[in-house]
Amino acid sequence: MGELNQYILEKSKELNIDICGFTDSLPLYNLEEYLLYREKNNVKTEFEEKDINKRIDPRLTMDNCKSIIVLGLSYNIDYDEKPDYLLRGKLSKSSWGIDYHLVLRKKIESLVEEIKKKIDFQYKYFVDTGPLIDRELGRKSGIGYYGKNCSIINKEYGSFIFLGYILTNLNLDISKEAESECGDCNLCINACPTGALEEPYKLNPKRCISYLTQTKSNIPITLREKMGMKIYGCDTCQLVCPKNKGIKKSNHEEFIPILTKGYMNLEELLTISNKEFKRKYGTMAGSWRGKSILKRNAIIALGNMKRTENIQLLVNLLKDESPEIREYSEWAIVNIFLTISQKSI
């Protein structure tokens, strides 16, 4: 590997960036057919770039792009303290601590400045905000291989990693791609609560709980019950993955959930104002969708708890100004009463 590559690797380590890889700027033609399939079968989400060409061709984002630096940051924090309130809605590890967009973006900006000390170059960087498929860039750059749950798995850090990338006009040596180590294991597929993992390496995102907790679209009743107590994101397929056992844990203190302890108070979410929500929770990744979406998810969680003592909290919402909130509250109340009637039979 060339001198400039080694320099970038060394600087990334100094900046406490866990993983660094390099790939070319050739279009990701191998994914074009799959993207067209998703579009045709209405399993494309509203969070994606609509133009498929932009999703696969780096040069449509930066016309003089020659190589791409891909970076990975582990967020696999060991933390098991629970808050003292009882009505707990669960947050994915991806929303623990400070918003990872801010954390990784700051590290990328610092890395860019270090590279500038060595060579003048042009660049564009993204953290989950660019049009390109960052997981495919992660695979091509040797950051990791695709697990059957479609997550990128790194040998040292497992799959709890955030990805970011820098498009550059630099001529960098390309990293070796990682080879899959999933073998015959299907634990993630079997564990998925909604069957979103339809087969190995094939995810229906519109059934994925992580998507359901973020979409503004109506959530089908059959899927609401599968969401359990999750109000933002879902870690199930990663938690059962053997490749996440015995690996390096994250040392990034920014991701320690000091404020939330990995949960949110469901009762608080029903009444907190938008202003107070932003003030208190605005620095966590899950806040980007706004209070209303998390309030809806809290209602679903209360319905899934199936405790009669929670009914009054939901009754108060039947006069909410939002028709969506009223509809979800009604569903949650009915769900609780159905459980009561079934137990009495």
UniProtKB/TrEMBL annotation:
Keyword hit for Cytoplasm: yes
E.C. code: 1.17.99.6
Residues in 4Fe-4S ferredoxin-type domain copies: 172-202
Keywords on record: 4Fe-4S, Cytoplasm, Iron, Iron-sulfur, Metal-binding, Oxidoreductase, Queuosine biosynthesis, tRNA processing
Entry-linked InterPro entries: 4Fe4S_Fe-S-bd (IPR017896), 4Fe4S_Fe_S_CS (IPR017900), ARM-like (IPR011989), ARM-type_fold (IPR016024), QueG (IPR004453), QueG_DUF1730 (IPR013542)
Top-level taxon: Bacteria
Any GO MF annotation of the entry: epoxyqueuosine reductase activity
Record GO biological process: tRNA queuosine(34) biosynthetic process
Gene3D superfamilies per UniProt: 3.30.70.20, Leucine-rich Repeat Variant
Pfam families (alphabetical): Fer4_16 (PF13484), QueG_DUF1730 (PF08331)
Presence of keyword DNA repair: no
Name the record gives this protein: tRNA epoxyqueuosine(34) reductase QueG
